[in-house]
């Protein structure tokens, strides 16, 4: 074989290798973009003031329950909101976590005087500790809830 034929074969091999590489990369991008719902694993975090919150979110009645619970939706979305919401104003700050449109996890309310309340929710109902703090961070009181019901503490039972 002549040097020219060898050179042509090398070029063809390089071009074929580039083609395979481009095909493999394109296939990977296509495969990754075909997931059913890429936003399911995303944690949405929303921050804003109370007024903007009222314009961007809406509460809808939960048709599956007989109580007065409502479910949080971003306006225009068909599925309930999951993620964290922080609302603020000069008088207060609230931080909430939602799962499927219901409060779920830690919820915090802070007042302008520095006092705050921390409460835990599960599926939209108070569940766990609710702790009240004064402006200096000292615990004023603690209450415990289970599925939305206040759990009497041992001192309450003695009375």
Describe the structure.
With 159 residues, the chain is of the alpha+beta class. It has one domain. It has helices at 3-33, 50-56, 154-158; strands at 44-49, 57-61, 70-74, 83-88, 92-99, 102-103, 105-111, 116-122, 125-133, 139-146, 149-151. The strands form two sheets. Strands 1, 4, 5, 6, 7, 8, 9, 10 and 11 form a nine-stranded mixed sheet that branches. It has a two-stranded antiparallel ribbon with strand order 2-3. The chain is elongated.
Topology (elements, then pairings):
Layout: H1 3-33, E1 44-49, H2 50-56, E2 57-61, E3 70-74, E4 83-88, E5 92-99, E6 102-103, E7 105-111, E8 116-122, E9 125-133, E10 139-146, E11 149-151, H3 154-158
Parallel strand pairs: 1-4
Antiparallel strand pairs: 2-3, 4-5, 5-6, 5-7, 7-8, 8-9, 9-10, 10-11
Order of helices and strands: HEHEEEEEEEEEEH
Shape: elongated
Structural class, please?
alpha+beta
What level of helicity do the residues show?
A: 25-40%
Query: How many strands, which pairing sense, and closed or not: the largest β-sheet?
Result: 9 strands, mixed
Beta-strand percentage range: 35-45%
Q: Segments where pLDDT lies below 50 for 5+ residues? A: 35-41
Total count of domains? 1
Mean pLDDT: 83
Radius of gyration based on Cα positions: 28 Å
Span between N and C termini? 105 Å
Total number of strands: 11
Give the count of helical stretches. 3
